Amino acid sequence: MRSTFTRLLGGLACLFVPLACVDLLDLRLRGTVDVVVVDGTITNLAEPQIIRLNRSKAEPVTGRFGMRPITKATVEVVVDSSAVIACHETVDGSYQLPSDFKGQIGHAYQLRFTLADGTRYVSSQQVMADVPAIAAVEAKFNPRSLSPALDGFFTAGHDIFIDFTDPADKHNYYRWDWNLYEPQKWCRTCVSGFYSIFEPLDTIPIGFYKSGTKLYEECFYPPAIPGRPVSEYRLDYACRTQCWEILHSYSINVFDDQLTNGGPVSKRRVAQIPFYQSGPCLVELRQLSLTKDAYIYYKLFQDQTENTGGLADTPPTVLSGNVHNVANEKEAVIGYFTAAAVSKKSHYLDRKDTEGRSFGAMINPDPPKFDGEELFFALNRRKPSPEPPPPNDFRIFIDGTPRPPLAVCGPIDQRTPFKPPGWPD
């Protein structure tokens, strides 16, 4: 159930495949649609500043969209029309600015990138506006918070409301998103393989292994044993240390202060946190400033996804954003590059108000029994299948290495072993 706004991608990755925007592109010819997708927001926080480039392409027969990262591009951010900051590719399609870079309020930012084939793109200039602090947070349990049911199952959740004071000196535009930290018990799944802390070494007889001395910390996929049929199985390994799953907002929430300019904003709902498990969690709320044109873009997309039922549905039109092909203005480029100041506030949700509550509604009249594994089920749509203790039918270690092992908390982009700020001691 990870929503990967490839961050609007927990939502923007999913979000942009069939996107909608200011310049509307008719999708009746969607079998031939092949568009560049841009996701990038420069913030004033000391956090990774990442630009994501993908290509969304429809299959000629089905019209279904697929997303693949754009690699080996040259990506730059221009500050105040003068300083040029180069980005480096960290993983396929993700381009990060230097680790010490962060945006500054009142400064202007522009994205430029060149694809491997020489095609050049540039965004409009975005000036980072200030943002007021979040003053107060309130959470209320709502058994029908999520409608339609998230992933067809979860309806219950906590509605999160905030108070803040809107500045009176100018017209302001806002967007909210959130990161959710859920305690995680399971850290690795191996498909037709097994987890090993140290590098497994072949030995005799065939199919038996012993541990080497080189640190491995990965799933090991052994070759098939001659004469034995190959079967697919999944083995799940518990976490070796404390670990938190990191989940992201899956919808767009924007606001224009036209009717509240200069006054207090009270009880604004900014998040709907799914009821994944009965234990506590931590919500990191993010209040972002927007430029006017960025607000218009996100508002159109918000309206369209609400009308079509969610990010997974294909909207009737695609929205071109503020990035264009230098040599071909008519090319539709999806997504948006902007700059936003951010006010963060963490809220510890103890979930004591959920005692005896249901985890959701499922069309299945015989819902599964979770056995305390609600979060795992939400993420994987099944219960965990731990490696059975020896002796078992899986590959055996002959050197007395304890089985099953415990796995490290990772991958780091979706889990962390470090206590999130705001989690009580």
Describe the structure.
The structure is a single chain. The protein is mainly beta and 425 residues long. Helices cover 7% and strands 40% of the residues. The protein has 3 helices and 28 strands. The strands form 7 sheets. Strands 2, 3, 4, 7, 8 and 25 form a 6-stranded mixed beta sheet that branches. Strands 5, 6, 9, 10, 11 and 24 form a 6-stranded antiparallel beta sheet that branches. Strand 5 and strand 6 form a beta hairpin. The longest helix is centred in the last third of the chain and has 17 residues.
Care to give the gist of this entry?
This protein is mainly beta and 425 residues long. The chain has 3 helices and 28 strands.
Q: Choose one word for the global shape.
A: globular
Structural class: mainly beta
Largest sheet: 6 strands, mixed
Gap between N and C termini, in Å? 28 Å
What integer is the average pLDDT? 84
Q: How much strand?
A: 35-45%
Rg, alpha carbons: 24 Å
Individual helix count: 3
Oligomeric state of the chains?
single chain
| Number of DSSP E strands | 28
Helical amount: under 10%
Poorly predicted runs are: 1-32, 309-316
Tell me the layout of helices and strands:
Elements: H1 12-16, E1 23-26, E2 34-43, E3 50-58, E4 65-69, E5 74-79, E6 83-86, E7 88-89, E8 94-96, E9 108-114, E10 120-123, E11 126-127, E12 136-142, E13 157-165, E14 173-183, E15 186-191, E16 194-202, E17 208-220, E18 234-238, E19 244-248, E20 253-256, E21 264-274, E22 281-289, H2 292-308, E23 317-320, E24 323-325, E25 333-340, E26 342-349, H3 374-380, E27 396-397, E28 415-416
Parallel strand pairs: 2-25, 17-27
Antiparallel strand pairs: 1-23, 2-3, 3-4, 3-8, 5-6, 5-9, 7-8, 9-10, 9-11, 10-24, 12-13, 13-21, 14-19, 14-20, 14-22, 15-18, 16-17, 19-28, 22-26
